Predict the 3D structure of the following.
Amino acid sequence: MDTNWPFWLAGLALGGFVPAFAWLTGKTLGISSGYSEMCSLAAPAGSERWKLWFALGLPLGGLASNALDGTVWAATSSTEMQATLGVSTVPQYALLALGGALIGYGARTAGGCTSGHSIVGIALGAKSSLIATLGFMLGGFATTWAVVQALGATP
């Protein structure tokens, strides 16, 4: 039995929660700022420390959901990545860590990550987030096209 939410219901829930949260608390959700809180743990806790708990709650909530569902979580590696790039498991993790660091740098430079701009920014009516999201989408489409062309794969 499929226990996943339908995409449209999950989208409505998320789309409704973001502006409601902002209206009720005067704060905006954002995962990249939660990770910056993680990086500043040595500093005294400020008014934004809740973002750390938000960032930690996402993976912990997923693990709890798996545990309650009876699913056993295990780390995996991608055979597609190994076949395409010719790298084994350890270099895959290094590439993923490097990619994560670059994404984090880009998120801080752009004033938020892709989901922060696309979900939170647009829900709150930020014109800059709409422009950033269009840039993310166009960049993603162009990169996908270039990779497919370079690998000679057909979608």
The CA atoms of residues 16 and 68 lie 26 Å apart. The chain is about 70% helix and 0% strand.
